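input
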Amino acid sequence: MIHRKMGYLTAGNRNAGAAAQHLENQGYALVPNLFSASETAALASDIESVFASQPPDNRSDRPPEANAMFRYGMLNHSALCQDAVAHRGILDVVEPLLGEDCHVIANTAWRNPPSSTGMHGGEAWHIDAGPHIPLAEGMTWPADIPHPTFAIGVHIYLRECRLQDGPTGVLARSHLSGQFPPLDRRMDDELTYNGESVIPLLAQPGDVGFFVSDIWHRRMPTQPGDQGRFFLQVHYGRRDIAQRILTTDTTNHLSSAAVSRATSPRQKTVVGLHSPMFYDG
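output
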């Protein structure tokens, strides 16, 4: 846990609640009924209107039907989404881990239709970025030192998410590993971490799921009766982590002359022109 004091980060946060502590220790948390039924319905309706009025921005080379599942930068398109990302109940969970000046680094609406497995829906085991503190294989994070958190993913559930629907599954405490999931087991339903099996984040509308960026997670396989998923995703990062709401080809700190001078792949990345990756889409 951390907080700001005279502009500096200090260890310890007396205001951290049970959800923040669980998120820090286990790498995930699920808070029920954080949004009321009326708030959830209004948010869902507003997001549906954005899907109807705004075409996909096709940030990747995925097929059109996969790109159609996402709308990025939702706080730019919806006042209710902007209100949602500043919900005090969410900030009370993430601020003790990221600092009171943490900010939104990505904000994407997900609307996975039924039977969308095989298109991008996070089906493979992955981490969202990092690991932020890589550890060599066999190393263990010291038990007496809280593992720092740099970014947190949040799912605001707009529809019930059942086991049949392919919920997000997490491997508790895997954020302490300092490693990414084994590449040869990316689709392995039986993957464990320290002997612990996957935990599915089953949710009702208005519930909010949290997971630190370094935790091993995936969309679990769908089952007969899959009704799809619908949630607003928000990623929060420490103040010193750049926002990724818009891609760097359109939003950067460069003059047109500087952009034109960067011709090689490394010349582009060193001045801040990155291809979309984690958080960008």
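quick obs: Residues 109 and 281 are 11 Å apart (CA to CA).
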